[in-house]
Amino acid sequence: MLRNRVSKLAVTGVTGALLMAAAACGGGGTTATESPAPGGAASSAPAEPAKSGAKVGLAYDIGGRGDQSFNDAAAAGLDKAVSEFGLEPKELEAANGETEAQKEERLRLLASGGFNPIIAVGFAYSGPVGKVAKEFPDVKFAIVDDAVEGANISNLLFAEEQGSFLVGAAAALKSKSGNIGFVGGVDVPLIHKFQAGFEAGAKAVKADIKIQTKYLTQPPDFSGFGDPAKGKTAAEGMIDGGADVVYQAAGGSGAGVFEAAKASNTLAIGVDSDQALTADAAVKDVIITSMLKKVDVAVYDFLKSVDGGTVKAGPTIYDLKAGGVDYSVTGGKVDDIKSKLDEYKQQIIDGKITVPQK
C-alpha cells in the first residue's frame, strides 16, 4: 500500500547501531468521532508545531512501510496529510532485536532535528516515547496502540476486539469443518485483544467451534511481526489439524499465513489493512475479509489536529461506533453473510454485545 511514494531517508551522524536499525515493530479516553548518543543529553529547545511545510517524523514498527498491513496503514495516513498540509516527512523504522535505547535514539534524532510532531507506530515505543517526550516538552508526540501518559503525548488507541469479533463470526459462518485458527505475531496483551474478539465472534455463531491458537514469538522477541516463514509454518500446522479458515494478527508474518492457505485451498482473514487489496496478487483470492484497523485515519486525524492547533494529549479511542475498526468486503466473499455480520456490528454499537478484551 503506497509503499514507494515516500522513500525511507538515510540516517547520518548517529551511532553505528542506529545506522543499521534505521532501516521495529495494541483511564477513560475520548472516543473518536471524526475522522546525541543513547542516554546522552538532548536539547529541548522549542520546535515549531506542524503547519504548511513543517517537518513531521514517523517511526515505524518492525517491517516499516511495505509490510502490507499495520505500518502501511500508518503510511497511508501520513501520505494523505503530507499531500494536504504540505508537510516534510521523515520516516524511520525499527529492526528485529533492537533495544529500547535504540528506539529512544531514533526519536531523539527526529526531535533534535526539528521534526514536530513525531508519531511512533506500535506499543514497542511505549517506554522510549515516555522518556523522550519529557526531554522535548515542546514537541508533540503521538503513539499508536499504547496509553503511555505525558503532557505532550497523544494516544491513538483502537477497539481491536470489536473488529475481530466480526471476522470471527465470518470465520465461523464460512467454515465447513467447524475448525478455525488464530495466528498472533507476538504473545502480548495487545494481540490478546484480537484473539479474544475473534473467539467471541466465532462462538457467537457456533458455541462448540474448535479454535486453534498459535503465537509466533514471545517477548522480548518481536520478530513474530516480521517473519512470513514462521507464519506459514504456524498456519500449515493448523490446516493439517483441520482448520479451514485462519485469521492472522501478525503484521508482515501474515504473508506466510496467506501462502499456506493458498497452497491448501483453504481460507484466510487479513488484519489492519484491507489485505485483499494490499497482499501479493498470488494470494489475494484466499482472503475472504480483513479486520480493518484504521491506523491511517488516526494518523491523519492527529496530523490534522496539530496543523489546525487543536491537538490534545491523552487517549482517543477508535471503535466500531467511531468507524475506527470494521471488516472489509473486497472481493465479495462475505456478501452472502454480510447481513448477519452487520447485525452483530449494530448490536456491539448499541451495547447489546460487549466484546471481551482478553
Q: Describe the sheet with the most strands.
A: 7 strands, parallel
The CATH superfamily name of the largest domain is: Response regulator
The CATH architecture designation of the largest domain is 3-Layer(aba) Sandwich
The fold-level CATH name of the largest domain is Rossmann fold
**Count of beta strands:** 13
Number of helices: 11
Q: First CA to last CA: what distance?
A: 30 Å
The gyration radius over C-alpha positions equals 20 Å
Low-confidence stretches: 1-28, 33-47
Going across the major beta sheet, what is the strand order? 1-12-6-5-4-2-3
- DSSP strand content: 15-25%
Described by the principal axes of the CA atoms, the overall outline is globular
Structure description:
This protein has two domains: 16-159 and 295-318, Response regulator (Rossmann fold); 160-293 and 326-349, Rossmann fold (3-Layer(aba) Sandwich), CATH 3.40.50. Helices cover 36% and strands 20% of the residues. It has eleven helices and 13 strands. It has helices spanning 16-21, 70-85, 100-112, 126-135, 160-174, 189-205, 228-240, 254-264, 275-278, 295-307, 338-349; strands at residues 30-31, 55-60, 88-93, 118-121, 141-144, 153-158, 179-186, 210-217, 245-249, 267-272, 287-293, 314-318, 325-327. The strands form two sheets. The chain has a seven-stranded parallel sheet with strand order 1-12-6-5-4-2-3, with helices on both faces. The protein has a six-stranded mixed sheet with strand order 8-7-9-10-11-13, sandwiched between helices. It is globular.
